[in-house]
Amino acid sequence: MKKTYLNEFHANNGGQMVDFAGWEMPVNYGSQISEHKEVRENVGIFDVSHMAVFDFAGSRQVEFLEHLLPNDVNKILGSTRALYSPLLNDKGMILDDLIVYHLGDENFRIISNCGTREQNNAWFKKVALNFDVAVDFKEEASIIALQGPKAKHYLGEMFDVDLEPFHIQTHDGVMIARTGYTGEVGFEIICNAARGLELWDYFIDKGIKPVGLAARDTLRLEAGFNLYGSDMTIENHPYESNLGWTIDMSNDVRDFIGKSALLDLQSDSKKLVGFHTDARGVLRAGTEIYFDGGTGIVTSGTWSPTFGKNIGLCRVDSNYPDTGNAKLRDKEINLHFCETNFLKYLK
Predict the structure, then answer these.
(1) Which of 15, 106, 134, 222 could form a disulfide with 57 if both were Cys (CB 3.0 to 4.6 A apart)?
(2) What is this structure's pTM?
(3) pLDDT tens digits along 143-177
(4) Domain residues for 296?
């Protein structure tokens, strides 16, 4: 298995190590629930260096990204900002989801998921050939996420940072982005491994608790964030994955990959929605959902530490009513359908 540069820290500090998409990563450091609550109420630190960082070079980066992505990078050209977008194939199906960062002077960076690293590297290079853009895959990059209500306080002790959501700053080779995967105030810090180790040790010495993959998953699910490989795959398109808002058709001239296919998919009959239930037991991915006039399937499910009930995401027929049913251990249970962001819907 592959290892991040912080692997020794995880192993020596109670990290329960598991195989995550070919990477040895900590699933927790003793208590998933405690780690989850620490992020919601205070601050936590995550090693997400298994994710993939790509930098680009060349004078036609804007044209390259206009073609590569369905969301339009022209939205972020006026400042150093980030933009979320799916990555599509020619059929309009989702290869991955990612964030593209405008570093300034029309230079860009992309961060995407770990399980698609090699696929994306090859895809970017193939598309970039037509624009004379060079792709630099930063395989040894450090990515640290500092997340929680007190994240800005701790980060401010080291850096002069005042960022709105999805804005970025750079400090001597360290990129700081107001982004995250938890639904809390948070920052992601990208740099080389040597500097990353210094930053990690600094925050750990300040008493910030490390957080594993299990709490990261419950945090993102409460916030209604999709997980690639679960809530969307190459078999899904954006309109049935609650990502229609990322498809920018405002420029008729812009010809992005998958555009023509998406024009025929806008009226698709499936929707990705949230559900919650007071029944005991967690509905796992693959569980069938049924209701009068339609069906669906659970894509992600968990017990929510914040709300004390079972929640999840499901892809259902678009005629779904307010409630539905599923079977859990041969027992029929009731589900309430809702918006995907439980932090807003259930608070």
Answers:
(1) 134
(2) 0.96
(3) 999 999 999 999 999 999 999 999 999 999 999 99
(4) 269-345
